[in-house]
Amino acid sequence: MPSTFSRYLPILTWGRTYNKSAFTNDMIAALIVTIMLIPQSLAYALLAGLPPEAGLYASIAPIILYAIFGTSRALAVGPVAVVSLMTAAALGNIVDQGTAGYAIAALSLALLSGLMLLGMGIFRLGFIANFLSHPVIAGFITASGVIIAASQLKHILGINAEGHNLLQLVISLFEHLGEINWITAIIGVIATSFLFWVRKGLKPLLLKNGVSKTMADVATKAGPVAVVVLTTLAVWLFNLADYGVKIVGDVPQSLPPLTMPSLSPELLKQLLLPAFLISIIGFVESISVAQTLAAKKRQRIDPDQELIGLGAANLGAAFTGGFPVTGGFSRSVVNFDAGAETPAAGAFTAIGLAIAALALTPLIFFLPKATLAATIIVAVLSLVDFSILKRSWGYSKADFAAVLATILLTLAMGVEAGVSAGVGLSILLHLYKSSKPHIAEVGLVPGTEHFRNILRHSVETKPEIVTLRVDESLYFANARFLEDKIYNRVTADKAIKHVILQCTAINAIDLSALESLEAINTRLGEMDVKLHLSEVKGPVMDRLKRAHFLDELTGRVFLTQFDAVKANS
Amino acid sequence: MPSTFSRYLPILTWGRTYNKSAFTNDMIAALIVTIMLIPQSLAYALLAGLPPEAGLYASIAPIILYAIFGTSRALAVGPVAVVSLMTAAALGNIVDQGTAGYAIAALSLALLSGLMLLGMGIFRLGFIANFLSHPVIAGFITASGVIIAASQLKHILGINAEGHNLLQLVISLFEHLGEINWITAIIGVIATSFLFWVRKGLKPLLLKNGVSKTMADVATKAGPVAVVVLTTLAVWLFNLADYGVKIVGDVPQSLPPLTMPSLSPELLKQLLLPAFLISIIGFVESISVAQTLAAKKRQRIDPDQELIGLGAANLGAAFTGGFPVTGGFSRSVVNFDAGAETPAAGAFTAIGLAIAALALTPLIFFLPKATLAATIIVAVLSLVDFSILKRSWGYSKADFAAVLATILLTLAMGVEAGVSAGVGLSILLHLYKSSKPHIAEVGLVPGTEHFRNILRHSVETKPEIVTLRVDESLYFANARFLEDKIYNRVTADKAIKHVILQCTAINAIDLSALESLEAINTRLGEMDVKLHLSEVKGPVMDRLKRAHFLDELTGRVFLTQFDAVKANS
Predict the structure, then answer these.
(1) Helices B344-355 and B20-47, packing angle to 10 deg
(2) Mean pLDDT of A56-79
(3) Are residues B366 and B256 part of one domain?
(4) Which of A364, A382, A408 is at the close of a domain?
(5) Pairs across A and B, CB distance < 8 A
(6) Inter-chain contact B135–A511, Cβ cutoff 8 Å?
(7) Which positions ≥6 away from B288 have C-beta within 8 Å?
(8) What pTM, to 2 d.p., does this model score?
C-alpha cells in the first residue's frame, strides 16, 4: 500500500521525516525566493500579455501542487520566460491581448498543457521529450531570449509594437519610433543599465571593499527589488504617469480566484499544438534543472513523476487565474542555494506570495512597466548564448544544421515554427545517418579465424564469395540501402556465387528489413547466387524462425563466419 | 566525358549496342502492351476524375522520357491505380471535377511531382523513400485498393456517389441506391464477373482443353479488350445510351496537346503535400517493380537515376495533357514477359498509343463507363491483401500497429491521412525502440578477461564499481535514458565509487549524447563518483577529442574493460 501511494505522492516520503531544522531552512529559502519572485512574476505576466496579478496567481497554487506531487526537493515552479513567450505567441494568433477572452484562453492553455503532462506521466510517455535534441533546445532558448528582449523594448521606449518574431518586432518598433516617450525611455534605460551593473559589477565591487560574500550575494539579489521600489517612488513623487509613463495601475487585492478555463472545442483545437510544444519545452527545461540540483545531493528525480507534478501545477494554474508554468532555472537555483531542503520551501513561498497578492498590490500601483521590462531583458539576455553554433560546428555538421535552422526559424517565424523545425530536422538527420549504415566487406586475416574490413587490413578473400558485415540493426530506413549495396556488388562481378551476411552487429531486424532480406534472397536466387547468414544473435534468430525466412533461404545459417567461408570454399 | 553523360542519359549505354534482334523483341512487346494499355489508360483517367483521353496522353510523352532517362530495361511508365486515386483525392478537395480547372490542376500536380522527383534525384535524396516501411506500404496499397474498388461501384450501378474515403463512399452509395440504372448495372456486373472469370478460370479451362500455354496466355490478356469491344457493340446496337447507360462519348482525335500547368501560388501551395506523397508512393512502387525485373536478368537499377527518369516522365505528363504517372506493376510485368529488351519497347508503345489517340478514339464513343469501372475493380482487387496484418502480428507488434493504423486511417480518412499516419507512426515506433536501448550491467567471467551481463551469467563484480554496456549508438533520443539509468543505479547504492561505460557497441555519439555524458560526468563528480570509459572505437574517440570532454572526465579512458576494472580495484 504505502509504496503505491508514495510513487504518486512523494510528499509521503519526505513529509514523514520532516523536522524543525528542515523547517527553519525551508522558511529562510522561502523568504528569499518570495522577494525575488514578486517582480519576476509580475514581469512574466506582462510578457505573456496578461495582467500583472496573473503572474502572482500562477506562482501560488502551482507551487503547492508541485510540492505535493513533484520529486525534486528544490525545484521552484511558476511562470518562466520562454513559456510565457510561447503563451503570448499561442494566444496572440487567436484572441486580442487585453480582452477577457485572452485571459480565459490562457487558462485553457494551462488546462490543456496540464492534462497533456499528466497524461504523459501516467502513461510513462516522458520519452517524447527526448526527441528534442540538446543543441536544438539550446538554439531555441537563445533565439527565444532574443525575441523576448526585443518584445520588451516597446515598454522601455513607451511605444506600441507588436509581433511574434524578430522581423515583425523590429519593423513594428521602427514604425512607432516617432511615438517614443522620453521620460519612460530614461527610466527604462537607467533601470536596464542598473540591473546589468548589479549583475556584473556590483558583487566584485562590494567584495573589493571588504563586504562579506553573503552580504554581497544578498545585495546582488535585492537589485531588482531596489529598482522596483526606486522607480515606483519616482513615478509617484513626480506624477510621471501624467507625462505618459505607463504604470501597472490597479491590481486587485485578492487571493488567487477560482477560475474556469474556456472549454470551447474550437479554441481547444487551436491551442492543441501550442499546448503540446509548451508542455514539452517546459518539461525539458524543468527536468534538467531538477536533475542538476538533485545530483548535487545524490538525490533521485523520477521523470514520469515529474510530469505528474508539472501537470498538477498547470491544472492548478488553470483553475486559479494563472497561465502555463514550469520549473524555472533561476528561481530553483536561488531556492537551492538559500538552503531549501524539501518541497515545503515551495509551499512557504506560496504563502509569501499569497500575502503579497492580498496586501502588497496597492504598493505597485505606480510601478512603471518599463521597470518590469528591464527586469525581463536582463534576465533573458543571460539565456542568449550563440556559442552553441560554434560548438556544434566543431563537433558535427548535422547537429549544426539543426541548431542553425532552429535559431533562424525561431527568429524569423516565431517560437512554434522554430521548435517544430528543430525537432523535425533532428529526427530527419538522425534517420538519414542511420539510413546509410556502415557496411564493410570483410576477409579472413591469414592464420586466424578473424575477419576484418578488406579496405583496412590485408586479408584473404575468394572470388566466388563476398562477405558483408552490417554495423547497425536492420530496419525500414536502411533496408533498401543494404539491398542496393548487395545488388551493385553482385551485378558488377559475375564470378560471385555466394553472399554471406555477417550479422555480428545486428541487434534487431524489423518486418521491412525482413522483407528486404527475402527480396534479396529471391533475387540472388534468380542470379544463381546463394545467400548465407553468419553469427546471427539469439533474439534475432528467434524472430527469423517465426517468419519462415530461414525455410526459403537459398544458403545456410552458420554459427561463425569462419564456418561459413569454409563450407562454401 | 561519356561517363558523365551516360550517368544522366542511360540511353547512351543501351542505344549504342541496339540491334535488329532487340528491335524485333521490343516491337512485339510494345504491341502487346499497347493493346493492354488502351482500356487501362482510359480507366485510370476515369479514376483520377479526368476525361478518358488524359489517360492516353499520360502514357505517351512520359514513356518516351522515361526511355531516355530511366535505368530499368522493362519498366512501363504511365497512370497507375494508386497514384490515380491519390490524384483524385488531392484535386477533389480543391477544384470541382469535370471543370477545366480540374484538368489544369492535374497538370500542376504532375509538374510539382516531376520537379520533386527530379530534385530528389539530382540531390540524391532517394533515401527519403526509405521512411516508408514495407508493412506501411502494403497496408496502404491494400486500403487504397478497397477505396478504389468502392469508388467504381457508382459506375457499375450507374448512380452518383462521391467521397475520398470508404465511409463517405459507402454512405453516398446508399443514399443514391434508388437511382440505380438497371441496364448499366447488368452491363457492369456481367463485365466484372467475366473479367474475374478470365483472370481465374479461363486459363485452366483452355489448358485442360488442349490449347497451348502461349495461346491461353494471349487469350487471358485479351480479356479486357474483348469486354471493351463487346459492351461497346452492345451499347451501339441497342442504343443503350438512350436508356441512361453512361458512355465515354466524344474523345478528341489528336496527338497529345501541348499544355501549360497552372502556376497559381495558391494552388501550388495546396498541392505541395499531395505532390510529395504522390512522388514518394510512386517512386517506391516503381523502384520495387524495376528491381524485381532487373534482378531476373542480373541488371542494375540506379535509384537516384530512377528518380530523374520518373521526374522527367511527370514533367512530360504536365506539359502534354496528362496527370501524375509512375512505373506500373502489371504493365511492366507484361512488357517483361512479352520479351522487351530495352526501353525502346516503351518508345514503340508510345507510338502505338499515339496512333490510338489519333485514329481509334471514335471507336470508343459508345464504350460504357461501367466497363472501364469493371476493368479497374478487377485490376485493383489483386492489390488487396490483408494478410500483411497476420504476417506483421506474428513478427512484431510495432510493425502491426503501424500497418493497422495505416489501413484504418486510409479507409476512414483517405489516402493522404493514411500514408502520413503510417510514416509518422513507423518513425515514432522506431525512435521509441531506439530511445530505450539495451543497457546491460556486466561483470567479469572468472578466469577470463571477458565481461558478460550479470543477469545471464555467473560473473564477478565489485561493490565500488559498476560497469554498464550500452548496445546502441548514443544520440539525442536515448541520451536521457542513459542518464536516468546511471543516476538510478548510483543514487540507490552509496557504495559505488566508479562508473565504467563499456563502449564496444557505440558506433557514434552525437552532440546531445555528448552533453549528456558531460552532465553525467559533472553530476557523478558532485557525488564523488568517477566516470570511466572503456573500449571506445576509433572514430568515436576522434570526435570526443575534438570536444574537450576527455579533459574534463573525472576518470580515465581504458583500452579494454579488463584494464579499467584492474586499475580501479
Answers:
(1) 50
(2) 92
(3) yes
(4) A364
(5) 178
(6) yes
(7) none
(8) 0.73
Q: pLDDT confidence of A341, banded at 50, 70, 90?
A: confident
Give the chain A residue nearest B124 (alpha carbons): A432
Test the B interface: residue of A389, A431, A512 with most B CBs within 10 Å: A512
Residue B267 zone, left/alpha/beta (φ > 0; ψ -120 to 50; rest): alpha
Return the pLDDT at A84: 93
Q: Same structural domain for residues B321 and B454? A: no
Query: Cell digits for A16?
Result: 514523514
The cell for B307 is 528518380
State residue B259's pLDDT score. 92
Cell digits of residue B537: 572505437
Nearest-by-Cβ selection for B394 from A301, A476, A546: A546
Q: Which three cell numbers stand for residue A550?
A: 530461414
In a domain, residue A432? The reply is no
pLDDT at A233: 94
pLDDT digits (tens, 9 = 90+) for B345-374: 889 999 999 998 998 888 889 999 999 999
Percentage of residues of chain B with pLDDT beyond 70: 99
Q: Are A189 and A371 in contact (CB under 8 A)?
A: no
Same domain, A445 and A360: no
Residues of B in contact with A292 (CB under 8 A): 519, 523
Cell of A362: 496597492
Interface of A with B in 200-229 (CB under 8 A): none
By three-state DSSP, how is residue A168 classified? Answer: helix
Please tell me which residue, A304 or B8, carries the higher pLDDT value: A304
Does a structural domain hold residue A339?
Answer: yes
Same domain for B186 and B245, yes or no, is: yes
Instruction: Match 557525488 to its residue by C-alpha cell.
Output: B527
What's the CA gap between B60 and B347, in Å, rounded? 8
Residues composing chain A: 569
- In terms of C-beta density within 10 A (0-12 exposed, 13-18 middle, 19 or more buried), how is residue A279 classed? buried
pLDDT band at A435 (very low <50, low <70, confident <90, very high): confident
Which positions in chain B touch A554 (Cβ < 8 Å)? none
Query: Sorting pLDDT into bands at 50, 70 and 90, what band is B130?
Result: confident
Q: Cα(A307)–Cα(A301) distance, rounded to whole angstroms?
A: 11
Question: Is residue B307 domain-shared with residue B455, that is, in the same domain?
Answer: no
Q: Indicate the average pLDDT of chain A.
A: 88
Q: Mean pLDDT across chain B, nearest whole number?
A: 88
Residue A145 lies in a domain: no
Q: What is the CATH number of the domain that holds B527?
A: 3.30.750.24
Same domain, A126 and A248: yes
Whether B510 sits inside 8 A of A430 (CB atoms) is: yes
Q: What is the pLDDT of residue B58?
A: 95
Backbone Cα Rg of chain A: 30
Query: Is residue B56 domain-shared with residue B166, that is, in the same domain?
Result: yes
What amino acid is encoded at B480 in this protein? R
Chain mean position to CA B14: 28
Rounded Cα distance, A89 and A97, in Å: 11
Q: Residue B284 is which amino acid?
A: V
Cβ within 8 Å, pair B399-A132: no
The helix, strand and coil proportions of chain B, stated in percent and rounded to the nearest 5, come to 65, 5, 25
C-alpha A49/C-alpha A163 separation (Å) is 12
Q: Give the integer Cα–Cα distance in Å for B454 and A268.
A: 50
Segments forming the whole domain that contains residue B491: 439-567
Amino acid A4: pLDDT: 62
Domains of chain A: total? 2
Q: Which of B396, B526, B543 sits opposite A395 (nearest CB)?
A: B543
**Sorting pLDDT into bands at 50, 70 and 90, what band is A5?**
low
Pick the last residue of a domain from B399, B423, B452: B399
pLDDT in tens, B402-455: 889 999 999 998 888 888 888 888 888 887 877 788 888 989 988 888 788 888
Looking at the structure, do residues A341 and A471 belong to the same domain, yes or no?
no
Confidence band, pLDDT 50/70/90 cuts, at residue B2? very low
